[in-house]
Amino acid sequence: MKDSMNKNVQDGLGQDDNSKHRAAASRKAAFVRETRALIASGGVEAVSLNEVLRLAGGSKATVVKYYGNRAGLIAAAIEESARELMQQLILTPDGKNVIKSDIKQSLSTVLTGLLQFYLMPDSLSIYRAVITARDGSGNLAESFYRTAQQFIVSEFAAYLNNWLGRGLRPDLDCMEAASQLTHMVRAGLYERVLLGIEPSIPNGNEIAKQAEKTAHLFLHGAAG
Q1: Fewer CB under 10 Å: which end of the chain, C or N?
Q2: How far is residue 123 from each of residues 146, 150, 169, measured CA to CA in Å?
Q3: Percentage of residues in the chain with pLDDT exceeding 70?
Q4: Nearest CA-CA partner of 77 in 126, 114, 115
Q5: Which residues pair with 97 in a beta bridge?
């Protein structure tokens, strides 16, 4: 009977732990969801802890517990966007994996999606805040780099690794190549939008053309 009582106590404790984990996960999801919505509607400047808490509930102590500060919360929102992006980029619209026999077509597809992500209004808002230090916390740049940019580069490198020996040379440093490609694809078109020289977001054809040119230069180089 004692063993039965102990088991019931343990089961009860386990259920309590599971409930706490679910509640914590739900609270964190709400924080990130509302932060992403605020960024999308008004840029990074629109994100205040008071407004996030008004929309999501909870307390500042809970935000500090999970994210450290406002910059950490914004970084978590960026990271979630980056994770969704990289999951989408490895699939074509019909659900097939983009790792096909034609590396140029595959790489162009991935770079097109990546450039579309960088050109989203909320992505532009975040990047402008990072490079101008307008977030008011001093930590957003580091958080952005570590949680979003490094994650994208790492996932991109894993994608490139699939092509080693079958379109890419076997000794290619995939992390370095991925890092360079994320900057190459943003040359010109993205820079003009970021700086406000282009009055509107480029259309899909312009983005695809930029991605194709980047893929061609990366794969074939410029040597005669």
Answers
A1: C
A2: 15, 15, 33
A3: 83
A4: 126
A5: 91
Q: What is the dihedral of CA 70, 74, 77, 81, to 10 degrees?
A: -170
- β-sheet bridge partners, residue 91: 97
Whether 126 contacts 74, CB under 8 Å: yes
- Residue 168 in 3-state DSSP? strand
Just give the CATH number of 2-220.
1.10.357.10
- Write phi, then psi, for 168 (nearest 5 degrees): -120, 145
Burial per residue of 147-160, b for 16 or more beta-carbon CB atoms within 10 angstroms, e otherwise:
bbbebbbebbbebb
68 Ramachandran zone, left/alpha/beta (phi>0; psi -120 to 50): left
CA separation for the pair 85, 126 (Å, rounded) = 16
Task: Report pLDDT for 92.
Answer: 46
Would you tell me how many other CB atoms lie within 10 Å of the CB of residue 110? 22
Rounded to whole angstroms, the Cα distance separating 74 from 76 reads 5
Predicted confidence (pLDDT) per residue in 83-135, tens digit: 887 777 765 444 455 566 689 989 998 999 999 989 988 788 878 877 775 55
The conformation of residue 139, written as its DSSP 8-state character, comes to -
Task: Report the alpha-carbon distance of residue 206 to residue 155 in Å, rounded.
Answer: 25
pLDDT the model gives residue 98 = 59
At 117 the three-state DSSP class reads: helix
